[in-house]
Amino acid sequence: MLKKLFTPFSYVDKRTLTIVGFFQLSLLILAWIFLVPEKTLFPHLGEVVDGWKQLWNNGFFYEILASLKLCLIATVISVILSSVIAYATTIPFFKPIGTFFTKLRYNPIQGFTLFLTQISGGGRNLQITLLVIFMSFYFIDSLMVMIKSIPEEDIIRRKAQKMSNWKVLWKVVIMDRLDYLFEIVRQNLSITFMMLVSVEAMNKAAGGMGAILNDTNRALNFPKIFAIQITIFLIGILIDAALRFVINQFLVNRNRK
Predict the structure, then answer these.
(1) How many CA atoms lie within 13 A of 143 on its CB side?
(2) What is d(CA 109, CA 143) in angstroms, rounded to the nearest whole number?
(3) Which residue pairs, CB below 8 angstroms and at least 24 apart, start in 101-106?
(4) What confidence tens digit (pLDDT) does each residue in 92-141 have?
(5) Deepest in the core among 28, 50, 78, 237, taking most CB within 10 A?
(6) What's the first-to-final CA gap in the chain, in angstroms?
(7) DSSP state, 37?
């Protein structure tokens, strides 16, 4: 078994990999506790824990809820808009428009903040607008790649069953590949979390982990900075695991039908 762990493309069961993962994590924590020198900017584990307790006592729980609410609203809106645009590209007239939106991934939206502020009214609405725009470019691109990868045989077979083009769109592209949509959301949510901090820092009055992190960063309070970063990291892992579970359950239920 030990040889397999260090051999490329070897099969190792999930239980063994979990044990190895916990072992590596334990080594990392021990290194953090015993190898970090004194009088350095890098905080000790105990300092980070104390910093997290102070944050929690000052209402950090509600800041987490504010960030999650913002992320949820923006994600739902973005998924709906992106799906409409991406699925519309199966109609030739709308394909250039969809392609254009995918190219906007390379254009930073921060330069349009003033215009978006006037349109949205600023505040929380601006944060939602920025996140929706930012996420939609990636969602549209991923959905269009998914649509392009659909085998031509699937479409031809459905047409041979006397399905209209609109019914093929509904059945083959949308319903038969809902799990792909969930997977795209899961994969791109990490990008959303990275943008979330920057967006919340733009309007600290609305609260959120990004606003707290921005203030803490300016104060050079490194234990609290690490505490916030680790919290965001762990929340992201939990959301990713939850989405994986939903996707797996969806596939299991669909295969039973």
Answers:
(1) 30
(2) 21
(3) 101/136, 101/137, 101/140, 102/137, 102/140, 102/141, 102/144, 104/137, 105/137, 105/138, 105/141
(4) 999 999 999 999 888 777 677 778 888 888 788 888 998 998 889 999 99
(5) 78
(6) 39
(7) P
